[in-house]
Amino acid sequence: MKKTLLVLATLALYLLHQDVWLWRSARPLVLGFLPIGLFYHAVYCLLAALLMRLLVLHAWPAHLERGVERDASRHAERRS
Length: 80
Description:
The protein has 80 residues and is mostly helical. The chain has 3 helices and 2 strands, in the order H-E-E-H-H. It has one domain. Helix 1 runs antiparallel to helix 2. It is elongated, with a radius of gyration of 20 Å.
């Protein structure tokens, strides 16, 4: 279930990246100086970073980490 939600969130974020509704206008200005398209992409980047964090926490293959830890411990033993 968790992986399904992550896949759906990834697809939703991909679809939201195609912001065709903000292409032709720089108005309204957010906070009085920031064009709406730039603000949209700033928020989008924050959401993408949050999604990447969630993907690393919940979908990262654990066997990759075990291999790295095993290699690091072997390397440390050789240096001792």
